[in-house]
């Protein structure tokens, strides 16, 4: 296979002189564009990349701060609720009237309580102290049921901690009485004593 002969075009020298400035201008434009890319555009792209990275980090920090703020608001709300609950707890001075109120409730419901035992734990700082009232209650089933129901739905912070049920048959009557051993617990808030600041 033979290659075709290509002839070169010969331009006159006058035309060549006219093209030299245009070629120099083209060469300068290419060099200028290359220098602009190397010294201006690439660093600008790097600056944009770094700015984007800093923006994403700032966005993450802001999201973390917002989550922390939301948790802090929840913690403050929980602290306020805890203070409200603590203030609603009875004090040690109100513990005796609470036991008397239990006795009165038993009398109203025709439940007999021969005596009560009290146990108050030692205070540890400003935390609420557990106080327990134990007693034996006896009465017919309906009376005991009403008494326990009223005890469970009382507005005070009383919790039935232990409940043992037995029946007692009276020898002289055919009536069966229910005997219940009950332990009721509550928490007592600590009151500031004068001079303990």
Report on the structure:
This protein is of the alpha+beta class. It has three helices and four strands, in the order ααββαββ. The protein has a four-stranded antiparallel beta sheet with strand order 1-2-4-3. β3 (159-169) and β4 (176-188) form a beta hairpin. It is rod-shaped, with a radius of gyration of 46 Å.
* Assembly form of the protein: single chain
Helical stretch tally: 3
Secondary-structure element string: HHEEHEE
The helicity comes to 40-55%
Q: Given the C-alpha coordinates, what overall shape results?
A: rod-shaped
In terms of DSSP E residues, the strand content is 15-25%
N- and C-termini, Cα separation:
113 Å
What is the typical, i.e. mean, pLDDT? 83
Class derived from helix and strand content: alpha+beta
Tell me the Rg in angstroms. Answer: 46 Å
Beta strand count: 4
Strand order of the largest sheet: 1-2-4-3
Low-confidence stretches: none
| Main sheet summary | 4 strands, antiparallel
How would you summarize what this structure contains?
By secondary structure, the protein is of the alpha+beta class. Helix content is 52%, strand content 20%. The radius of gyration is 46 Å and the shape is rod-shaped.
Topology:
Layout: H1 13-88, H2 95-108, E1 116-120, E2 129-139, H3 141-152, E3 159-169, E4 176-188
Antiparallel strand pairs: 1-2, 2-4, 3-4
Descriptive keywords:
single chain, 197 residues, alpha+beta, 4 strands
